[in-house]
Specification:
The protein is α/β, with parallel strands linked by helices. The strands form 2 sheets. The chain has a 7-stranded mixed β-sheet, with helices on both faces. Strands 5-7-9 form a 3-stranded parallel β-sheet. It is built from 15 helices and 10 strands. The radius of gyration is 20 Å and the shape is globular.
Length: 341
C-alpha cells in the first residue's frame, strides 16, 4: 500500500473504512485488517454516503476499493456480531439493518456511473464479493481466494451474487453456491466473476496510473482455470433437487465429486436446499429483484436456529460440529423451502 495516500474517515466519522481523493481517483480502504476487513453496517453506510458524493463530483473520474492488511479485500459480513446481537436479543433489528445497508451498497456499486475498480487480492468471500464483483473493473491477483461459503454457517449466498452464479455456464455457479468451495484467479476469471489478472506487486502502479489520468499498463494473460468446465460438475449439479444432486455426487466415479458431496453434507441441509431454490429463481430475476429476494431470505434466516448454530460452530466455538435442524437433505420439506419465496 502506498503510504503517501492521505486516507481519512468520511462524513460518518467511521474509522472502519477510509477514503482518499487521489488525483482522478476516489479510493476506499476497508480498514479492519484483524477481521480481514469484515463488513459492518457502519462501513456500508459510510461507503454509501461517500460513493453518492463522488458520483456527483466532477473531479472524481473513477473509484477503487482495497482491503487493509495482508490477508485480503474482505472476508464477508461480520456475522459473529450479528449472531451475538440475536443471542442478546432474539428480536434485535441489527442484522436486518445491516443487510438492508449492505444490499443497497451492492446495488449502488452495480449501477455506479463511473468506473468502479475492485482490487480482489487475497481473501474475497461473501460480502467481499458483494463490494467487488458488481463493479465495472474487477481485478484478481495471483493470491485471490474467492468463495461464497454461507451454507456452512446456516445462511445462503447473498449480496446479489446468486444473480451472477445463476448465469455461469455448466453449473459451475451451482457448485460454488452449494459447496462453498474456494476458487483461485483462473476459475474466478473463467466464471465471469472478475475481469483481469494483475500481479499483486503491480496494484499500486495501476491505481497510480488511473489517479494520474494515464493509460493503464497491459494486463497479463489469464491463468488456466482449475475446476471451471469440469464434466463432473456439469453432470452432477443439474436440476432443482438438492438431495438428488448430493446422490449423484456420492455415486460419481471422480473422487473430487465425492469430496464435493462431503462438503455439502457438512453444511446446513436447510441452507443448501434454500440456496438451490434461490439460485434457480435468480436465473430469471434482475439484480434488484435478487437483492430483494436476498433481504426476504436473510430476514427469515435471522430467526432460524441454523444461522446462530452455524456461526457458533464455525466462528465462535471453532471446529465444533454444528447440530442442524435437519439431519440430512432428504429430511428437508420442499414446502418449507417454497414458503420462503
Amino acid at each position: 500500500m502506498d503510504h503517501e495516500i492521505d486516507y481519512a474517515p468520511g462524513r460518518t466519522g467511521s474509522e472502519q473504512v477510509l477514503f482518499a481523493h487521489d488525483g482522478n481517483l476516489g479510493r476506499m480502504l476497508l480498514n479492519r485488517p484483524k477481521a480481514i476487513n469484515s463488513l459492518t453496517a457502519e462501513m456500508c453506510v459510510a461507503m454509501l454516503d461517500q460513493l453518492e458524493r463522488w458520483a456527483e463530483d466532477p473531479a472524481i473520474k473513477a473509484v477503487s476499493i482495497q482491503g487493509a492488511g495482508e490477508r485480503g479485500l474482505c472476508a464477508g459480513g461480520d456475522v459473529k456480531a450479528l449472531r451475538q446481537a440475536l443471542v442478546d436479543d432474539p428480536k434485535s433489528t441489527a442484522p436486518v439493518e445491516f443487510w438492508e445497508a449492505e444490499y443497497r451498497l451492492n446495488q449502488l456499486i452495480a449501477e455506479y456511473p463511473k468506473p468502479y475498480i475492485a482490487i480482489m487480492d487475497g481473501i474475497v468471500m461473501g460480502g467481499g464479493m458483494g463490494v467487488s464483483t458488481h463493479g465495472s473493473i474487477r481485478l484478481v491477483t495471483e493470491r485471490t481466494k474467492v468463495a461464497m461459503p454461507e451454507t456452512i454457517i446456516g445462511f445462503f449466498p447473498d449480496v446479489g451474487v446468486l444473480h451472477s452464479l445463476a448465469r455461469v455456464p455448466d453449473e459451475f455457479g451451482t457448485f460454488l453456491a452449494l459447496t462453498g468451495s474456494t476458487i483461485g484467479p483462473g476459475d474466478t476469471l473463467a466464471a465471469g466473476l472478475a475481469d483481469h489478472l494483475i500481479a499483486q506487486d503491480d496494484i499500486d502502479a495501476h491505481l497510480a496510473a488511473v489517479a494520474a489520468g494515464g493509460v493503464l499498463p497491459p494486463f497479463p494473460p489469464n491463468p488456466e482455470p482449475q475446476s471451471f468446465g469440469a464434466a463432473w460438475i456439469a453432470e452432477s449439479f443439474t436440476g432443482d433437487d438438492a438431495a438428488a444432486i448430493l446422490k449423484r455426487l456420492q455415486k460419481h466415479s471422480d473422487p473430487v465429486a465425492q469430496q464435493a458431496a462431503e462438503q455439502i453434507e457438512a453444511r446446513s441441509p436447510f441452507s443448501v436446499a434454500v440456496t438451490l431454490a434461490a439460485l434457480r429463481r435468480a436465473a430469471d430475476l434482475s439484480l434488484p429483484e435478487v437483492l430483494a429476494q436476498d433481504l426476504k431470505l436473510a430476514t427469515h434466516f435471522a430467526g432460524d436456529p441454523d444461522f446462530r448454530e452455524g456461526v457458533r460452530a464455525q466462528l465462535v466455538d471453532r471446529g465444533d460440529k454444528p447440530k442442524w435442524r435437519h439431519k440430512s437433505l432428504a429430511k428437508v420439506d420442499a414446502d418449507e423451502v417454497a414458503a420462503l419465496f
